[in-house]
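Example for tutorial group B:
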């Protein structure tokens, strides 16, 4: 079994044009600085919603801004509708075929760690993180309305048992979330900055975490 896994891993690596050395390097390569945010990839800060007097309407508007991040390819590719991750800014199905597996880390013999290292490996365009894994099916966002995403993200039976404080902690400290702003070359970072995203989430929670109606 072990030998078979190694053979599969080696052939997968070769199929990618990566030798064993490249995979070893993937563990040590330094991640690049995040690309500067262009006009299309900016976020409005919480203060720009201060003019909305009605608290619930302000909360809904804040979630609209948060939604720009949640529905961005950097997040949706790992929160897909099916068992398969997606990849690139065009959100194409992951090649080769890999599946969530029982715990998000892939099927035996084709685990995410076969290719994804602890950090991005830029020469191979390979993203990496110490706990690279697919989000559970209950946390799928692909193809859903902002209303549905909003309700799901707040629902402790679907969000991994996170209350609002835990949810904010997750989105401000989890390395997979933060990777969205440090995705390596050839991928657009998530809009804005992690700090802006965290501030929007906090402001949304403080205004009652209301959800859009559509
Ligand atoms: C490499 C895959 C990956 C990427 C990329 C990723 N996530 Fe996740 N996400 C996960 C996994 C796995 C979990 C569940 C495990 C956990 O809770 O730590 C999760 C859980 C979450 C949760 C908590 C559950 C929920 O649905 O409310 C939030 C919020 C979240 N991710 C936000 C984001 C945001 C925002 C981005 C993009 C900036 C992002 N994620 C990118 C894999 C990913
Ligand atoms: C056989 C090698 C291989 C395996 C196994 C593998 N990946 Fe990938 N993955 C890649 C490569 C290569 C890329 C980069 C493709 C590109 O951007 O051109 C990639 C990209 C991705 C992306 C896209 C990131 C983005 O936003 O563009 C996600 C998400 C992803 N993989 C998730 C996973 C998950 C989850 C697993 C385990 C269930 C996994 N991969 C297993 C090789 C692999």
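The residue assignment follows.
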């Amino acid at each position: 079994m072990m030998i078979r896994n190694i053979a599969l891993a080696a052939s997968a690596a070769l199929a990618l044009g990566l030798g064993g050395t490249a995979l070893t390097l993937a563990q040590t390569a330094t991640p690049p600085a995040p690309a500067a945010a262009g006009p299309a990839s900016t976020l409005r800060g919480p203060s720009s919603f201060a003019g909305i007097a009605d608290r619930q309407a302000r909360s809904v508007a804040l979630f609209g801004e948060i939604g720009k991040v949640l529905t961005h390819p950097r997040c949706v590719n790992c929160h897909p509708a099916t068992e398969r991750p997606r990849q690139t800014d065009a959100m194409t199905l992951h090649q080769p075929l890999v599946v969530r597996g029982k715990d998000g880390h892939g099927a035996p013999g084709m685990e995410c760690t076969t290719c994804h290292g602890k950090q991005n490996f830029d020469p191979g365009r390979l993203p990496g993180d110490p706990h690279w894994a697919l989000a559970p099916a209950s946390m799928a966002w692909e193809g859903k309305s902002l209303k549905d995403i909003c309700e799901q993200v707040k629902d402790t039976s679907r969000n991994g048992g996170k209350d609002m404080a835990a949810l904010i902690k997750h989105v401000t400290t989890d390395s997979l979330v933060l990777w969205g702003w440090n995705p390596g070359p050839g991928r657009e970072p998530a809009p804005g900055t992690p700090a802006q995203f965290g501030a929007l989430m906090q402001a949304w929670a403080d205004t009652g975490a209301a959800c859009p109606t559509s």
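The pocket of heme C (ligand 2) is lined by residues 12, 16, 73-74, 77-78, 85, 87-88, 94, 96, 98, 106, 110, 112, 114-116, 125-127, 133-134, 187 (CB under 6 Å). Compare this with the pattern of hydrophobic and polar residues in the output above.
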